């Protein structure tokens, strides 16, 4: 496979075209950003770790019948993916209150939600990715009602699967962000990545300690230290769970 040109550089990945028009190459970077890129840094080995975790999770989801953009890994920090038209939506699924939900509602951190909460945010850095109402989502024509319905069902199914998977890793899936795209047949496909950059993951064995339980990007956001170690720990547990499932 020959790589052609850089198509897009995001905060965590670079996308390249390939000699096959329906296939792109995603190169995962070690760069870390938070608070809409106001905080910047570098997490050693993050690109490789996030690419490996995402690849394993996408493979598991495919086995479970969820279509993802994952194809294969030409290198440990690279993923070949299906070229999609990405919808400008960040789909956040929450099982436990944390982050912006607590800031915006006053719910105490750690409140277990009676049922998963699925939220849509406008993926727009200039506007700071604002939370959408469904009226605003349709006003901006970000997706059709059918697409929103399909995404909501997929998000709940993905959450059910990932919660169970992470439970086997002794990890509590607090919340996470998904992105979806449309293929050439207008089929909705799970895209982007699922990693400690995009999920809140709490160590189930340290669940009552608010600092040591954190195995995700909140370690970077809140300067909790041992960021690389936490990401590496998630990868090792994911690999072990995949192995023991064979
Ligand atoms: P919150 O809305 O609490 O900031 O984030 C909820 C969840 O979605 C967290 O797991 C967070 O990591 C993820 N998330 C929300 N927006 C983004 C984003 O723009 N980039 C990344 N990497 N994750 C996000």
Q: What can you tell me about this protein's structure?
A:
The chain is of the alpha+beta class. It folds into 2 domains: 78 residues, 2-Layer Sandwich (Phosphorylase Kinase, domain 1); 152 residues, 2-Layer Sandwich (D-amino Acid Aminotransferase, Chain A, domain 1), CATH 3.30.470.20. It is built from 6 helices and 13 strands. The strands form 3 sheets. Strands 8, 9, 10, 11, 12 and 13 form a 6-stranded antiparallel sheet that branches. The chain has a 5-stranded antiparallel sheet with strand order 1-2-3-7-6. A hairpin with a 4-residue loop joins strand 2 and strand 3. The longest helix is centred in the middle third of the chain and has 23 residues. The two termini are 30 Å apart. The model has no long low-confidence stretch (mean pLDDT 97).
Q: How do the helices and strands line up, and which of them pair or pack?
A:
Elements lengths: L2 E7 L3 E6 L4 E6 L2 E4 L4 E4 L3 H18 L6 E6 L2 E5 L2 E2 L2 E8 L2 H7 L6 E11 L11 H6 L5 H23 L3 E12 L5 E4 L7 E5 L14 H4 L5 H18 L2
Antiparallel strand pairs: 1-2, 2-3, 3-7, 4-5, 6-7, 8-11, 9-10, 9-11, 11-12, 11-13
Helix pairs in contact: 1-6
Bound molecules: guanosine-5'-monophosphate.
